[in-house]
Write a structure and sequence with these properties.
By secondary structure, this protein is mainly alpha-helical. The protein has one domain: Tetracycline Repressor, domain 2 (Orthogonal Bundle). Helix content is 64%, strand content 5%. Strands 1-2 form a two-stranded antiparallel sheet. β1 and β2 form a beta hairpin. α1 packs across α4 and α4 packs antiparallel against α5. The chain starts with a strand and ends in an 18-residue tail after the last helix.
Length: 124
């Protein structure tokens, strides 16, 4: 079955499958935003799935990693906030949301602190 069908006029029309997919994605993002607001980054995918009324597998069908899910949820929250507070603050929010994407492309992530091998005592 195809996701879109052509009507008599030839324009694309979303099918029930596409509408259900979009609805599930929106429910997942809404649940993720709520869970992040309540519990912060300690939120689990299982909590998001339960709040959205979908399975864990469905969450990962729409978002390949937990980090991508939370990044998208935070991006949408910031965008929504920017829309509510006005154009000048909205532009600032747009810049802030673009920074992590640009940094991810330009520079590798730093080594985690626990990966440090130098355990010798420091001299003051």
């Amino acid at each position: 079955m195809t996701v879109t069908e052509r009507d008599a006029a030839g324009s694309a029309r979303a099918t029930l499958v596409a509408e259900q997919r979009d609805l599930a994605r929106e429910r997942i993002l809404r649940a993720a935003r709520g869970a992040l607001a309540e519990r912060g980054l300690a939120t689990t995918v299982d909590e998001v799935a339960e709040a959205a009324g979908v399975s864990r597998r469905t969450v990962f069908r729409h978002f390949d990693t937990r980090e991508n899910l939370f990044a998208q949820a935070l991006r949408e929250s910031l965008r929504s906030y920017g829309d509510r507070v006005g154009p000048s603050v909205g532009a600032t929010v747009a810049v802030i949301t673009a920074i992590p994407r640009n940094n991810a492309v330009r520079a590798p992530s730093p080594a985690p602190l626990h990966a440090r091998r130098d355990t010798s005592p420091r001299k003051h």
